[in-house]
Amino acid sequence: MILKNLFFDLDGTILESSRGILNSFRYTFDEMKYPQLSDTELNTFIGPPLEVTFETLSKGDDAWAKKAIMTYRQYYATKGMFDAKPYDGILEMLEDLHHHNYNLFIATSKKEDVAQNMLSELNLSHHFKGIFGNTPQAHSKTLVLKKSLELTQSTPNTSAMIGDRKFDIIGGQENNVAKTIGVLWGFGDETELKNAGSNILIAHPQQLLEIIR
């Protein structure tokens, strides 16, 4: 098995974007008259699709959840998305992977056009052959990755999913990719990633090339 295609999560894997995300949740809670939550609680919302988070918070009120998602996305698209930067070592990692002829893609639960605009604003788009995200037809990580594999004609047995949360690992497993790789610099932790069944854990971006070659 030779890996050729690397699918990366975005928030918590490529980008340190927590401040913009947390401020977007705080703004949404204020607008929706919902009690503010602690940073610890808010951090658990980074990674899962917004649909999952707000449906859980709404306790069955679909109209409330839909309005909350719209409020969040409006704020995030105008302010929150710009409060992000690559983690230390990410740019060097991407350059090294390019040098060794890997195909790099983004597969994120973030809304697809927002992910594309965000990476463009940060001058990172050119590192990736495709940027795939949440759409009405695919909002779970499993469905986003499925779409990404199909549109890029990437075979699962030559592909890996790389991310910081259990959703990334589960999405990779449900698409039968060759490797699921958990990163420890993001918003998940070792216990979460191990329990999800991650094949490999890495603590620094530069370790990725070492373990897949």
UniProtKB/TrEMBL annotation:
Assigned GO CC terms: cytosol
GO molecular function terms attached to this record: protein tyrosine kinase activity
Coiled coil location: none
UniProt-listed Gene3D superfamilies: HAD superfamily/HAD-like (3.40.50.1000), Putative phosphatase, domain 2 (1.10.150.240)
Pfam families: HAD_2 (PF13419)
InterPro entries: HAD-like_hydrolase_sf, HAD-like_sf, HAD_2, HAD_sf, PGP-like_dom2
Protein name: Phosphoglycolate phosphatase
